[in-house]
């Protein structure tokens, strides 16, 4: 079942405004920021080179640049094969552009004071990169923009990395600071996250016999993080746990559950327990009638769900028939509508970023380079 993944077309959605009646100078840019993934398998090396060269994401010490290139070269072939197994590339660009386009269309309806809204995507390690977005935004004449992190839970390794890259590239592509930026930097307990995940879990529970459903364990699987970053005081583990608790609260804690972690890379200690090890411990227990995997920190399908969970984990499982994965958000209308509501609320609040961002910056700033002295240098109220 997990191998029969329908491959969606990966294409470029329109960059042009969702409304052609208002002048571009009044448009609000909405920028979905995420890690990205190679659109085609043959772009994997470039993607991995950027990824392993980013010390915000994976600290490799003073030889980061050299080691990043070496690791990327060593891993390219095996990762290319995985992308080929899920259809020849990552669908994350397709879903990001689809979601952002839909969000802007809804914003034009519910937030006319900030309309028209123009959709952009800025990936950290794959096309369209941050500089691609900035160049297009300047060409479009946009003068106000919302950077919308598509990492629901903040981390200095992901959300902050995109933030720093925006600052660096703005110095090159918009040195005059013609675009006024604000930032939706986290949303771990947003209704558009909690409600769809609760629904997806109920959908999967309904696939088990009624007499077994209360003995199904829900495993919330999030991308792991090096303990080196966790020990700096990173917000990510607590915010992922907050997401998990909010979903289970919505479900009235009707099933046993655990938060587990996936995608560990390299020999250094990472946050655990690992998803695969907990599945291995539970799948043959007589009193466990099923396992539901929930990708709690991802906003769409990509290699971590389509291959790591749907293929690798299932191939290694000893009792795969009791394992199911909850859906990802992808084209879910409740999710997309809720994202638009978040943007509307953010604009109306007048806040440039959340109350947590300055503390996050204080705890992590010594570990990055070539960025601002304070977030207010990049973000301001609309």
UniProtKB/TrEMBL annotation:
Catalytic activity: heme b + 2 H(+) = protoporphyrin IX + Fe(2+)
Keyword Iron set for record: yes
Location (main, coarse): mitochondrion
The enzyme's E.C. designation: 4.98.1.1
Cellular component GO terms, alphabetical: mitochondrial inner membrane
Span of the signal peptide: none
Biological process according to GO: heme biosynthetic process
Protein family according to the UniProt entry: Belongs to the ferrochelatase family.
Name the UniProt record assigns to this protein: Ferrochelatase
Organism: Candidozyma duobushaemuli
């Amino acid at each position: 079942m997990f191998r029969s993944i329908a491959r969606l077309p990966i294409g470029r959605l329109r960059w042009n405004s969702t409304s052609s009646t208002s002048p571009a100078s009044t448009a609000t840019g909405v920028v979905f920021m995420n890690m990205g993934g190679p659109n085609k398998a043959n772009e994997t090396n470039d993607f991995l080179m950027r990824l392993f060269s980013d010390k915000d994401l994976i600290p490799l010490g003073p030889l980061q640049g050299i080691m990043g290139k070496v690791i990327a070269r060593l891993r390219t072939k095996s990762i290319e094969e995985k992308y080929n197994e899920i259809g020849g590339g990552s669908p994350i660009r397709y879903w990001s552009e689809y979601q952002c386009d839909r969000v802007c269309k809804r914003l034009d309806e519910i937030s006319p004071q900030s309309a028209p809204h123009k959709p952009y995507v800025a990936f950290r390690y794959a096309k369209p990169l941050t500089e691609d977005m900035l160049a297009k935004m300047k060409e479009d004449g946009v003068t106000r923009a919302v950077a919308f992190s598509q990492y629901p839970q903040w981390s200095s390794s992901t959300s902050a990395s995109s933030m720093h890259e925006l600052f660096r590239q703005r110095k090159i592509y918009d040195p005059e600071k013609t675009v006024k930026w604000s930032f939706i930097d986290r949303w771990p307990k947003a209704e558009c996250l909690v409600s769809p995940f609760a629904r997806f879990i109920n959908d999967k529970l309904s696939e088990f016999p009624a007499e077994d459903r209360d003995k199904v364990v829900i495993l919330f699987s999030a991308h792991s993080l090096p303990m080196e970053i966790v020990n700096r005081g990173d917000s990510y583990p607590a915010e992922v746990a907050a997401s998990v608790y909010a979903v289970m609260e919505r479900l009235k804690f009707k099933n046993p559950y655990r938060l587990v972690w996936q995608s560990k890379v390299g020999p250094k200690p990472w946050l655990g327990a690992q998803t695969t090890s907990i599945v291995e411990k539970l799948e043959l227990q007589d009193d466990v009638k099923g396992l539901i995997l929930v990708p709690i920190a991802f906003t769409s399908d990509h290699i971590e769900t389509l291959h790591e969970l749907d293929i690798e984990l299932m191939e290694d499982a000893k009792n795969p028939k009791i394992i199911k994965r909850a859906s990802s958000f992808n084209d879910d209308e409740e999710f997309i509508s809720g994202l638009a509501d978040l943007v509307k609320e953010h604009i109306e609040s007048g806040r440039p970023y959340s109350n947590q961002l300055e503390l996050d910056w204080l705890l992590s700033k010594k570990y990055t380079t070539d960025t601002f002295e304070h977030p207010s240098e990049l973000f301001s109220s609309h």
